[in-house]
Amino acid sequence: MIFILVTAIISLDQLAKFVISKNLVLGQSIPVIPGVFSLSLVHNRGAAFGLFKGQVLLFIVFSVLAVILICSNLRRAGWRKLSFFNLALALVLAGAVGNLIDRWRLGYVVDFLDFRVWPVFNVADSSITVGAVLLAWAVLKHKDK
């Protein structure tokens, strides 16, 4: 189940990035909900919010280490066990792999979801964010016991 979820998120992320990259030019923005949400093609050469631009090798190394650690933890916990904690790890893993594929192939991450009040992001970023929030919640909830 975890493997299917991770594969589905990575596939959705890469498909969305491919479609956007083929249909928009860099910097182009198409309003979906005017003033609220647009599809905007951005090449992010940094980390979240464009921080640490140009450090592609560093991001690749950290991403590979994160993927190894998460896979190790999931393997130890059992890939088939769909616990809240494993779900959170799977979301972070899928997002990390999705962005790692971009950095490895292109030297940057393709971002396209633009809510105008937040930096442009992608499906992988969303997966990492939701997974991190769920991980924090799982850790805090477990700490109370």
User: How is the biggest beta sheet arranged?
Assistant: 3 strands, antiparallel
Structural class: alpha+beta
* Terminal CA distance: 27 Å
Total number of beta strands: 3
Q: What share of residues are in beta strands?
A: 5-15%
The residue-averaged pLDDT reads: 90
Number of helices: 4
The helix content is 55-70%
- Number of domains in the coordinates? 1
**Cross-sheet strand order for the largest sheet:** 1-2-3
Shape: globular
Order of helices and strands: HEEHHEH
Low-confidence stretches: none
Please tell me about this protein's structure.
This protein is α+β, with helices and mostly antiparallel strands and 145 residues long. The protein has one domain. Helix content is 61%, strand content 13%. It is built from 4 helices and 3 strands, in the order H-E-E-H-H-E-H. It has helices at residues 2-23, 56-77, 84-106, 123-143; strands at residues 29-33, 37-44, 109-114. Strands 1-2-3 form a 3-stranded antiparallel β-sheet. A hairpin with a 3-residue loop joins strand 1 and strand 2 (37-44). Helix 1 (2-23) packs parallel to helix 3 (84-106), helix 2 packs antiparallel against helix 3 (84-106) and helix 3 runs antiparallel to helix 4 (123-143).
